[in-house]
Amino acid sequence: MSDDRQVVDPEAIDRLLEMTGGDPEFLRELITTYVEDGAAQLVAMRAAVDREDPEALVRPAHSLKSNSASMGAEHLATLCRALETDARAGRLDGAAERVAQAAAEFEDVRVALDAVGTD
Amino acid sequence: MAGGGRVLVVDDERLNRTVLRAALAKQGHDVVEAVDGREALDRLAEAPIDVVLLDIMMPVMDGYATLAAIKADPELARIPVIIISGVDDVASVVRCIEMGATDYLPKPFQPAILQARLDASLASKRLRDLELEYLEQVSRVTGAAAALEAGAADLGDLASVAARDDALGVLARRFESMAREVQAREASLRAQVRELRIEIDHARQARQVAEITESDFFRDLSGRAADLRRIIRDGDTD
Fold it and tell me: B80, B108, B184, B213: which could form a disulfide with B121 (CB 3.0–4.6 Å)?
């Protein structure tokens, strides 16, 4: 992580716990689901950019945006939102670099969530 | 809380489905899941659903097409559909509400909003179900009245209507009692008519017998028969 901002909002994690019954094991499962699906979404995003196919970028960027927002990973959600918006408009300007940023942020989120899950 | 319902969660994201399943179960609902619109329509065809939580962006069949299919089907059209949507996707929510969606649920999910919107939709669905049941039962009573007027023996089953503890129940019980009286009176009248017919037939037969026995021909025939009996008895052929 390159600055002092929160990678994962702890309030979002509290809200998830409250919604789902307060079971830490269940939260652990949610984090695993998020990490597995997020890794696959990043692979699909990179492939779409490599193929210069903005349409194929929309869905994985949308999914990673939505899931990251649910897990309180606001910065990653914002990066993905911008990629999704541009991809919907058929734009791929700087997409490769922004997908790389998203991948680096995802790694930070994964580390932060690992820490949450073992608290 | 309005009491548990059967909720169909339609979302291609397993994270959303998992969170919603746990949150809804915690609120006392039964949860059915579908990963896209096509699967959602299959689930809706299998068993009754009280509320649908529907994501918009999905593979195979998206939320718009799914909502359109639900609203086009008379059997499904009255099921409330709550759209699952990102807070930044106002245009999609507006479009879905114009297509007949009941409400929307912003992502990330907030427990209080999830519960309030689900409870409101369930309450509205239950009220509509009660209205439809009422209308169906009114139609059963009017159908029975028409059947009674037409003289039908079977007036249909009014037991469930008569068991109601409201004005319709009173009407159904009163109607059943009156219908029984009318049918009993008709049965009695039919029996009396049958007896009268038998008496009339007996009188007619007696008159026909008298017409024959009182004729000259019959008297002549009777005389000849008496002569014959006498001849047979006495052996006198003279």
Answer: B80
